[in-house]
């Protein structure tokens, strides 16, 4: 099962390509405020460097938190959109061994259908001033 992994909860973003539990390739880069611009290029490069295309993906695993609000939003939105457009499973995971957990769950036919972020705290909103 060809699986793309995505982690965008901190300034250093990570993507990986796995054939089941076998790591084919892994990229990390300092994405900071360029995450939305750079992640698509990094995924394209990772796939092409292993002679694959988006259409070859069979599942997507994404780190769902806790972490940076904007970083998680970008990574999870991308994972959900790719999975929906490719008609493949998507699974969100949390913990130090999130990839292992997600790959195992995907291989056992688990599918979140839509991953929601876990920010680690309630949102802080300000009351409108009248």
- Per CATH, which architecture? 2-Layer Sandwich
Distance between the termini: 56 Å
Secondary structure tally: strands:
5
Mean pLDDT: 94
Instruction: Report the CATH topology name.
Output: Nucleotidyltransferase, domain 5
Can you tell me the CATH class?
Alpha Beta
Share of residues in helices: 25-40%
Low-confidence stretches: none
Report on this model:
By secondary structure, the chain is an alpha/beta fold. The protein has one domain (2-107): ATPase, nucleotide binding domain (Nucleotidyltransferase, domain 5), CATH 3.30.420.40. It is built from 3 helices and 5 strands. The chain has helices spanning 35-49, 69-86, 98-107; strands at 2-7, 12-19, 22-30, 59-63, 90-93. A 5-stranded mixed sheet has the order 3-2-1-4-5, sandwiched between helices. Strand 4, helix 2 (69-86) and strand 5 (90-93) form a beta-alpha-beta unit. It is globular and about 55 Å long. It starts with a strand and ends in a 23-residue tail after the last helix.
């Amino acid at each position: 099962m060809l699986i793309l992994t995505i982690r965008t909860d901190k300034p250093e973003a990570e993507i990986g390509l796995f054939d089941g539990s076998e790591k084919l390739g892994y990229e990390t880069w300092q994405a900071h405020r360029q995450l939305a611009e750079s992640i698509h290029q990094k995924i394209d490069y990772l796939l092409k460097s292993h002679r694959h295309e988006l259409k070859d993906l069979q599942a997507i695993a994404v780190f769902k938190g806790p972490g940076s609000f904007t970083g998680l939003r970008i990574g999870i939105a991308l994972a959900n959109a790719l999975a929906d457009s490719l008609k493949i499973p998507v699974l969100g995971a949390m913990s130090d061994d999130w990839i292992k957990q997600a790959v195992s769950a995907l291989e056992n036919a688990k599918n979140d259908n839509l991953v929601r972020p876990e920010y680690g705290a309630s949102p802080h909103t300000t009351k409108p001033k009248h």
